[in-house]
């Protein structure tokens, strides 16, 4: 079993670190929030007072931080604190460019590295059922895979440095666009006098089927577990969807890719966020689309 340092113990990182403990690893955790540090001790994570203390004996370091700037700052510090050969895994959702820079920092210090963002939300983090999309060298993936398996159920090696982040933002661009499409269809159906259940029964088994309707239906009733049945409590907050759509648009601009629907989806979620709904589930955008 390995000595692991876990930096960033928030909504996702806390339960992920707890699952590494459950799998028998020794985990030292650090977070800027003293309150969070106190609370993770109950799950068997040993609280550290700094990144330096957390990584002192670590064979692997996992980071789960808000944005690219946080990851580059933390990795920039910790590469001089760990032994060569240490595996660094970043599970945050960040821009592809920062992910590639983080790999360069690791390589410069003789460390192995993976970008390994996740899908599955806080529920998946708690239940260890996350999907991991990993980017990095084969030997880094081979070393990291058993640890990712302790926190998730589907682990995909997407390619070289940054490929995990690329897969994540492409997937979430599909999700943002498809949710708006499903919401528009329900809003149109309502105006045409169609019941939610009738549209669901047809579209969820026909060519309109997708995760946004079949699993996460944005109106109450047809899928009882979807946030629409719970006042649009997240789930997946609209602000996080906006963050991921913005990352997709930055990447599209840098790569010269045309993503007109991705751009439109980003604008609509930006408007929804500016109207004060960033903390609600992203499927609540149906209320704005009803006009
Ligand atoms: P969060 O804000 O709950 O947690 C981030 C934690 O990082 C905070 O506790 C913060 O104190 C800590 N932190 C920031 N800078 C630090 C530093 N320098 N050193 C130590 N700790 C530091 O966020 P979250 O919901 O856990 O999300 C983390 C990442 O996972 C984000 O990139 C997010 O986009 C991604 N993600 C979130 C979800 C979700 O449903 N919440 C789903 C998939 C991916």
Automatic annotation (TrEMBL):
Keyword rRNA-binding attached: no
Domain 6-phosphogluconate dehydrogenase NADP-binding: 3-159
EC number: 1.1.1.31
Keywords, ordered alphabetically: Branched-chain amino acid catabolism, NAD, Oxidoreductase
UniProt pathway: Amino-acid degradation; L-valine degradation
Name of a matching Pfam family: NAD_binding_11
InterPro entries, alphabetized: 3-OH-isobutyrate_DH-rel_CS, 6-PGluconate_DH-like_C_sf, 6PGD_dom2, 6PGDH_NADP-bd, HIBADH, HIBADH-like_NADP-bd, HIBADH-related, NAD(P)-bd_dom_sf
Tagged with keyword Ribosomal protein: no
Enzyme class: oxidoreductase
GO biological process: L-valine catabolic process
Domain 3-hydroxyisobutyrate dehydrogenase-like NAD-binding: 162-289
SUPFAM superfamilies: 6-phosphogluconate dehydrogenase C-terminal domain-like, NAD(P)-binding Rossmann-fold domains
Catalytic activity field: 3-hydroxy-2-methylpropanoate + NAD(+) = 2-methyl-3-oxopropanoate + NADH + H(+)
Active site: residue positions: 168
Origin: domain of life: Bacteria
Gene Ontology MF, one: NAD binding
Protein family: Belongs to the HIBADH-related family.
Name assigned to this protein: 3-hydroxyisobutyrate dehydrogenase
Species annotation: Ciceribacter naphthalenivorans
Source organism phylogeny: Bacteria, Pseudomonadati, Pseudomonadota, Alphaproteobacteria, Hyphomicrobiales
